[in-house]
Please model this.
Amino acid sequence: MNYLIIALQIIVGVSILNVWLIQNKKPTRWRGGDAKTIIEEFQVYGLPVWMCYLIGFLKVSLAIALIAGIWYPVLIQPSALGLTLLLLGSVVMHFKIKDPLYKSFPALLFLLMCLVIAFRDQLLP
Model:
């Protein structure tokens, strides 16, 4: 089961890095409202631009820590729980602006993966 957790760490970590570092200025079907970029998405949510940079820094840092947890297990639970909270915020923002349910799917999926990662010892023998 250890390989499953490692796979989840890589999937979540690389996906978050992709969203925030590569796809951040590109439109996707998952963006809140009619936003084309991450900054526009935060504006749609009614959040200031500085918060986009703060959340981005936190998500990128935690994604890197989650991947680094493969070699430094002490990083796994704090980074997975930190990402869980941030992803919960993403889901809440989608609901706040009454986005269609499918737009919340990636954040909810990664949130669930982070919970599995964080509580792997309790969930997997």
Summary: Helices lie at 2-22, 38-44, 49-68, 76-96, 105-118, 120-123. The radius of gyration is 14 Å. The chain has six helices and no strands.
